[in-house]
Design brief:
The protein has 4 helices and 5 strands, in the order E-H-H-H-E-E-H-E-E. The chain is an alpha+beta fold.
Length: about 160
């Protein structure tokens, strides 16, 4: 197994002894990369109504969740021990109130040596947790679900999008 990058077909995050390690991306050239993730916070009808009419007691749920998601994208390496510290050069977190709850989408962009998939997933996860935190007083049964990568662009792996 290669000690740098796993280029021989091995797992890049394991050393020759099978121990976890951070992949060395020193020799990789910075390129433009992006990733988009989505998730959903399922809410009871009365919570959706409160979100729509702005009557959630803790305030503007979508604004707080948006800022939480952006902040989380920038702090991903503090949460995931093998994630690289990279420049998050752009991050958009969009939230939409739907009949069953709140749809969350985050797109993160960089010009760096490694991708931003984990940053996009972290942004969605933390934005969803912020929604849960803001509405849990109205309904403790809210559920954050379906957090998933839906597309990535750039890097050695090229472009990818989730089918469907």
């Amino acid at each position: 197994m290669s000690a740098v990058g796993g280029t021989d077909g091995g797992f890049a995050h394991l050393d020759a002894a099978g121990r976890a390690r951070m992949v060395d991306v020193t020799q990789k050239a910075p390129t433009v990369r992006s990733a988009t993730a989505r998730g959903f916070v399922r809410c009871a009808p009365h919570v959706v109504a409160a979100l729509r009419d702005g009557s959630v007691p803790k305030g503007d749920v979508l604004a707080v969740a948006r800022v939480a998601g952006i902040a989380a994208a920038k702090r991903t390496p503090e949460l995931l021990p093998l994630a690289h510290v990279i420049g998050v050069h752009g991050c958009a977190v969009d939230l939409a109130i739907e009949d069953e709850g709140v749809e969350i989408e985050a797109t993160v962009r960089t010009a760096d040596r490694t991708g931003v998939e984990m940053e996009a997933l972290t942004a969605v996860s933390v934005a969803g947790l912020a929604v849960v935190d803001m509405v849990k007083g109205l309904d403790r049964s809210v559920v954050l679900s379906d957090v998933r990568l839906v597309a990535k662009a750039g890097g050695r792996g090229g472009d990818w999008s989730r089918p469907g």
